[in-house]
Amino acid sequence: MSLTPAESRLHSILSEYLSFVSPGKAGLAEPATADALRSIFATLEKLEAELSPKLDPRLRHFMESKSYRKAYDYLSALLSSKLVNSQESRQSCPR
């Protein structure tokens, strides 16, 4: 199973963001790092605006709250649980 292309892009950008802000990360004050973070934030805001209507409500809440670690963990959990877009994860109606 896999994420949608949009979710994959979001997961990738969140991973990039977390690599910059991980505990013990040196050099956050360097101009190149600050520029990279600004670019990442701009991309995250753009993706949030673009994808918000299509996102799972919980993921949308994490993105709107700027809880990027939680958004990343949520997408990672979907990937690891193999429930992404699976038929088993959808409820069916007998009618």
Report what the structure shows.
This protein has 95 residues and is mainly α. The protein has helices at 5-21, 31-51, 57-64, 68-81. The protein has one domain.
Structural key phrases:
95 residues; mainly alpha; 0% strand; disordered C terminus
Topology (SSEs and partners):
Blueprint: H1 5-21, H2 31-51, H3 57-64, H4 68-81
Helix pairs in contact: 1-2, 1-4, 3-4
Largest sheet: none
Q: State the helix count.
A: 4
In total, the number of domains comes to 1
In which range does the helix fraction lie? 55-70%
Mean pLDDT: 82
Percent of residues in beta strands?
A: under 5%
Question: Concise description?
Answer:
The chain contains four helices and no strands.
